[in-house]
């Protein structure tokens, strides 16, 4: 009958020969007890009878020199003479003997005793010869007391209580303390003037001190230590009973993993202890290194790793929880960075058994052979199954003989041996060597060998000469055929294959050796970590399992979770999908371009966007400083110019992006080379780009040219105005609510909060200050008088460094999705420790991102919804349009109609019809109008008192103090900040509006008359996936960033992208296209060539674009500061605080100071190879200029996306929660009468068994906190790093990646653990390239030259390998693919 495997039937073939006898089974259970006869009772053993007839406790006891110890056995008695002493107690009636004493040997105690003090003595009655007859005991007992011997022999009593504070006391210095008689405080303790000797020691009257000890305990096997297997490796489990000691020592018997269990923490008090660990190595995140029934908490959530040397941890309990801290790491007290000490949290979780456990012979060369299994063999492995297929019964035959070590029964089995002479660069092949002979050659200096397999076992080999079946050039590089499990084959190193979760078929084996090598025949089939042998390849793949290739066996196959190290989600390698993800193919309603890596993809556009942050910038203009001197400054010329020829550059990674929690630490980026994306290489945070087949077109008028954005700021505040209700936001009234990224989880944008709703409420919010800069700024005024001018603009000295951020600055606020944006907003200090929320960061790109077009478009779209929003009252003539209804600390929301008649729609602070102030104090008196105030500090206007909790208020909540608080700033000014009553018809004329109105996010491709393939296990169905049959991790359509557009331009110029679009029925990308980044107009604001930049600076002062005004202007007095705003100059007026702003000026101020231009890319009809920039140009155009829009959408290579509509604690179930970063992904809905297009809906609401489209800004949904785990991450933040390979450090300090046993057995190295990595190499650069090692070393020297970073993509067909005539050479394929070297290292012997 057929074997049912998954959903497919696998037919059996003919019955084969009877297999070998299996191993002996387990011993059966014990049978029933048989009948029996009880035997006679034995003799009673010898027993004690009496002690010479003497009874104790008698007054007539007679002393003797000897006493008889009498015993009885079988009726006979026997006496033994012993000597003893006795003890007399004086009682009534005479002395009684109460006990006998054993023999006492001679003993003399001689102590030289000197009384150093004037108090009572610890010793007494000392004879002349120094013999101490009496000695008083002294000790302490109690928490936090220590009694120690001082340096000079004195006794030192110390008292230590963690967290104790200062208490005023009376008494002498150094005195012990006790409660005074009135129990109102502490006073010094006065000891007794005497000490009385007692029977049981000394006692100081009036001062009772308990004994206190602080011992250290060495945990040993059976005493706190249990040896056990941990993640398939011998390790140790330790149990800490903290009541035993204060210090625990764990000395591992050998390097290995360790897990620590801590007994429950006390409930009603705190306890603490230290643990010193020596020789423990790491585990994967799936193994808890520290566990307890009480929760174990470490700083920053992740638990630290073990270094392999000496580590020390401290633990303190509080509230039934253990709080751990790493105090000493890697045998050093030096400060270690967080990433290093927590790196083991980044490796893949252990997923179960590594191998089938089947054993065989391990050939190591030099005559060394052992019995091992595949995973633990450091040489060439011959499984028992392999032996059986070669005709040898491993139950009766010594499989080790197959290695070829000379012996009487050694079979003559040989195979191809590839030999590489490192010095001579000779490559040859010998087909007549055994495994041992081949590997023995590899033990010679400067010789590397690899034994591929026996001739009979090489996949696809039918030649008589095994050398004709392998490519020794590939073998010299450690490469061979790698099956990806889905039927595809690629030639990689064994390490690289393992890193991709593939199945390596042998060193030197070519994919071309058999077209069905990875898809045909029968072989090992992996479902998770389970392996089934002899499964038909096509049926294995069809069942959704992973096929290891034709002829593969479970004994030599490692089944693992299929998540590649580079972060590529398995969806993209699915055989039903991957053919449609190639350049020029249709998917997702557009054309696949390829994989764009924000770290390093090559672009053809504005070269200013590719400048690296290397600390070197050519200073190209000068300006006046505060002291009257001048200094050079730098802004890239192609950012200043309005038109520039395109140039090639590499996209620079934005350490503030890309909307997801970090999975890589700083070590990943150090020395990371740029990828060759045309060859499929990519780096972290990469994504597939799908480009629309046509330009945008308004169907009502066939318009294809659009303005970039509105007249004011285009960096929109995220609010709930973009929900799916056609009538806008409604709660009986129109009310827009702040819903940006510093909102605390639990606030839905509608309901009145009961607690603070802002992260950083005491600072006025962590992100809200950024909106006072509109699109951002690059200059600030300073508050001194220079040359008679007050408030001269100044360019920050570190503008380039702030604009091209490093890992350190980008991650200064944290490495979670939204925290990285917090650091973009604040340059003065980390967002949660800054002294002021107005420390804002300058950037010559403003707030816009060079290569994150999705987020740029989200902000542009929110600006449109803000401009569409109308307050809804009848007082618009007096309304300033301020609808920032979140107070500075996130309390006391105000409805639009709650403002009384003196305030109109909001905080206009109306006082007559001429003068308005920016602030809100509620009183008509000029003295109560505050230019800083964002919210009311006076209860008169609203009928209730408001207690704001701001960090600079010093506990005061009165109107005057709150209004002038530097945290009480009015950060955005409603429609005046964006545009005035933007109509539904006008919104169609802007680029971001057109994308949302004329491109449906549900677009997908029809391929061969059917919907595009999207397997259910990844894409769900139309009931739970709103954009089905697109995968849920496909983004909305958006406007490309400058880098994304420049990257596509390169594909148009060099990879025929336009021709491929036309071939699929689309229109070519030609003409001038908007990108999603605004631009400053630097024209006339910088003087690049002469030494006097004051004229340009003053021109900028009057222009206001991108300048942050930091002081009251127009006056001579200094120190009069106001809220920091771009484009708003506040004039000094009457009164101490009355800085007035005319209504006319305020009505227009929203349009002043914002970015006035945006970037376009011009693409010629044909590439011009002999012109600079190949005919491609970049332009800086006014926002009102009209250009084309070609939308794109993305799919992240790692499959991550923001999930919506899930249960908080079980994200696979429907619920009301939404990932925090959804606000960085989904567009708000723009109202223009097109109810079913654009981003009205984002996901399906499947609660209560239903299926309804929903919008993340609708009422009833809760956005998760930025600290929460991302439910839309398929790997839940874990990066797969290969389960077999780890760091191996040799005695010389050289480190490379290999398997555990190869490291220990072949190289005698120290293995760092599966998934561990070598220390980071220094950063690579053109001037000082880092020398490569391992496979990279072999690859470069095999080519006969070094491969520099800047020419790694050159063709390599001209590279010639010399072959030694002394070696027997088979047919070797000389053709080498072009491309860069492998990024991994490996060993030198195979």
Our estimate of the beta-strand percent is: 15-25%
Rounded to an integer in angstroms, the radius of gyration calculated over CA atoms is 40 Å
Counted beta strands: 70
Put simply, the count of helices is 22
Low-confidence stretches: 1-13, 161-166, 191-213, 351-357, 872-884, 900-917, 919-931, 938-945, 1114-1121, 1133-1139, 1320-1390
- The quaternary state of the protein chains shown equals single chain
Biggest pleated sheet? 10 strands, mixed
Summarize the structure.
With 1390 residues, this protein is of the alpha+beta class. The strands form 24 sheets. Strands 17, 18, 19, 20, 21, 22, 23, 24, 25 and 26 form a 10-stranded mixed sheet that branches. The longest helix is centred in the middle third of the chain and has 16 residues, at 853-868.
Question: Which key features would you list for this structure?
Answer:
1390 residues; alpha+beta; 10-stranded mixed sheet; 4-stranded antiparallel sheet; disordered N terminus
Question: What can you tell me about this protein's structure?
Answer:
- This protein is 11% helix and 23% strand.
- The chain is α+β, with helices and mostly antiparallel strands and 1390 residues long.
- Strand 4 (67-73) and strand 5 (76-82) form a beta hairpin.
- The two termini are 43 Å apart.
List the helices and strands and how they pair.
Elements: E1 3-5, E2 8-10, E3 47-51, E4 67-73, E5 76-82, E6 85-91, E7 94-101, E8 123-124, E9 134-135, E10 145-149, E11 155-159, E12 169-170, E13 177-179, E14 186-188, E15 196-198, E16 201-203, E17 216-218, E18 220-221, E19 224-230, E20 233-240, E21 247-262, E22 272-281, E23 290-292, E24 295-297, E25 310-318, E26 321-328, H1 338-341, E27 359-365, E28 368-373, E29 380-383, H2 384-389, E30 415-421, E31 426-433, H3 435-441, E32 447-451, H4 472-476, E33 479-483, E34 489-493, H5 494-499, E35 503-507, E36 522-527, E37 530-536, H6 537-542, E38 546-547, E39 586-587, E40 590-596, E41 602-605, E42 621-624, E43 630-633, H7 637-640, E44 643-645, E45 647-650, H8 666-669, E46 687-692, E47 706-707, E48 779-781, E49 785-786, E50 789-790, E51 793-794, H9 799-803, H10 807-810, H11 819-825, H12 853-868, E52 915-916, H13 959-963, H14 974-978, H15 991-998, E53 1006-1007, E54 1010-1011, H16 1016-1019, H17 1042-1054, H18 1057-1063, E55 1071-1079, H19 1094-1103, E56 1107-1109, E57 1125-1126, E58 1141-1142, H20 1143-1149, E59 1157-1163, E60 1177-1182, ...
Parallel strand pairs: 12-14, 17-21, 18-19, 20-21, 21-22, 21-23, 24-26, 48-56, 64-67
Antiparallel strand pairs: 1-2, 3-4, 4-5, 6-7, 8-9, 10-11, 13-14, 15-16, 19-20, 22-25, 25-26, 27-28, 27-29, 30-31, 30-32, 33-34, 33-35, 36-37, 36-38, 39-40, 40-46, 41-45, 42-43, 44-60, 46-62, 47-61, 48-51, 49-50, 52-58, 53-54, 55-59, 56-57, 59-60, 63-64, 65-66, 68-69, 68-70
